[in-house]
Design a protein that fits this description.
This protein is α/β, with parallel strands linked by helices. It has helices spanning 8-17, 30-38, 48-56, 66-79, 95-107, 135-147, 168-180, 195-204, 224-229, 240-259, 273-279, 282-292; strands at 22-27, 44-46, 84-87, 112-116, 155-160, 185-188, 209-212, 234-237. The longest helix has 20 residues, at 240-259.
């Protein structure tokens, strides 16, 4: 099979291996992806939680399926130029299902995908009560994913939830086994804000380490700079865009109820029609309409 050299996974790998930490905010639809891109971020993470909440109004508990995720992934990849990593969840079944899922998500335009070792049905990584599949079963899933990616540069980000379930040593053992099976990066889900533990993970896992930044939680959060200083390769910030959007909608609707208009809201709290038009390609569409509008017939 001929593989084009400009696969978005190649750019994503460059960003992962760059000395500067890669920050990937979470998108849940095409508009949030455009806002992340135009805010200056070099890559986007599709949030499985964000997708479930935004599309279904339900928390992340395996209510979305491969078709849902592939559709949103395709829409996002069509409107941004930066690489997009999507969320393959648990692969939506066994290793054979995982192969099919990774193939489909690659065809949707993704630069890579997260694949996790929770038992199905999975629950949000921030929740308690998670259960894991065996290391051996997950190794099979990672191998299937690696064998069925649509391009060699498609990034497989193998996620382990072992840290909060079976402990640090099992998380490290699993991480290294997943790397051997073909994962490009290892994502240790929901680590505590313990710099010493993060430093050990960076040192003992033989792969670029991905973490997520705790959001909306009490406690001493580490900053992105702290994680970079510890040697973390990539950090996802999956929920901040959706948390911000949800609060902004509540505030705007409360203002409308109280004042009978949104015109009195400051520009820092509500976007203008022109600004949203810029984000959604209004000028491009207008130019096309002018170019292709009905022209007089010539005989």
């Amino acid at each position: 099979m001929h593989h084009p050299t400009n696969h978005p996974g190649a750019r994503l790998k460059e960003l992962i291996h760059d000395p500067e930490i890669l920050v990937m905010p979470g998108a849940y639809d095409a508009l949030s992806a455009r806002i992340i891109e135009t805010s200056g971020y070099g890559a986007i993470q599709i949030s499985g939680y964000g997708l479930s909440v935004s599309q279904l109004g339900l928390t992340d508990a395996s209510f979305t399926n491969l078709t849902d995720v592939a559709d949103v992934t395709r829409r996002i990849c069509q409107v941004v130029k930066v690489p997009v990593m999507t969320d393959a969840d648990t692969g939506y079944g066994n290793a054979v299902n995982t192969a099919w899922s990774i193939e489909n998500l690659g065809q949707a335009g993704a630069a890579g995908a997260n694949l996790e070792d929770q038992a199905f049905p999975k629950i949000c990584g921030l929740e308690g009560g998670k259960t894991l599949i065996t290391m051996g079963e997950m190794v099979g899933k990672v191998k299937a994913a690696a064998d069925h990616r649509v391009h060699p540069d498609f990034v497989i980000n193998a996620r382990t939830d072992a840290l909060g379930v079976t402990g640090e040593q099992d998380a490290i053992d699993r991480a290294n086994a997943y790397r051997q099976a073909g994962a490009d990066m290892i994502y240790v889900s929901s680590p505590p804000s313990d710099p010493d533990l993060i430093a050990r993970l960076v040192h003992r896992i033989d792969a670029p380490l991905a973490l997520n930044l705790p959001e909306g939680e009490a406690g001493p959060d580490l900053t992105i700079q702290d994680l970079q200083d510890l040697g973390v390769a990539r950090v996802s910030v999956p929920l901040t865009p959706m948390f911000a959007a949800a609060r902004a909608m509540q505030n705007a609707l409360a203002h409308l109820r109280e004042h009978g208009t949104s015109q009195t809201m400051p520009g820092t709290e509500i976007m203008s029609f022109a600004e949203l038009g810029e984000l959604s390609g209004s000028s491009t569409i207008q130019a096309m309409e002018q170019r292709y509008s009905a022209l007089p017939m010539t005989i």
